[in-house]
Amino acid sequence: MPISNISHDKSALPFITLGDHLAMDLLNTEARNGESMVDYWTSDADVLKWLQQHEVWPVAEPSVFAVGELLSQAKALRSVALRLITAFKQEKLQDISELNVFLHAYTSAPHLVSDNNGKWVITRISGANTALAMLGPVAQSVAMLLVEGDATLVKQCEHPDCILWFYDRTKAHKRRWCSMATCGNRFKAAQFRKRNSK
Length: 198
Ligand SMILES: [Zn+2]
What we know:
CATH architecture: Orthogonal Bundle
Strand order of the largest sheet: 1-2
Bound molecules: zinc ion
Mean pLDDT: 87
Largest sheet: 2 strands, antiparallel
Strand content: 5-15%
Radius of gyration: 18 Å
CATH class: Mainly Alpha
Distance between the termini: 58 Å
Shape: globular
Order of helices and strands: HEEHHHEEHHEEH
Low-confidence stretches: 1-11
């Protein structure tokens, strides 16, 4: 699928971006809605849109790959990330070999671009155009979290019905909810109802 087929209209992108870390938002492509699980990735196009929304544009040339390949590789990376990040949080991280497979596929070169202010900056761009290589920057962000992240700041929303992840960058490190507007208020309303029904 040529990457240029994907719309550049960001307003149409529905993905969750409250994780404050690319690796957290990777895990947040799966969420819970009541009793059922929601997978925001159901096609290659979904994954491409997600990469676009997170400003991961790793390839210079349009990538062409078998239908479903990007989706299956992205889901594989997500389950590796979930396993490793859970172990990291529990300080039990051991075997990282599966992540290395994704990291090794990411061969990149320096890439000069102008930023939003018209200033020139050097970024990296993927040297390969396989589905696996396209996910390289995402795999790298998982690796960076394991290397530089603070395991105590890797958190899951405290609402019992929510599974969303975030990296707590608040000053006091007391963030409890994926979003105060949704889960925080839902939880407080439920506590209030409980107190008043006694
Ligand atoms: Zn939540």
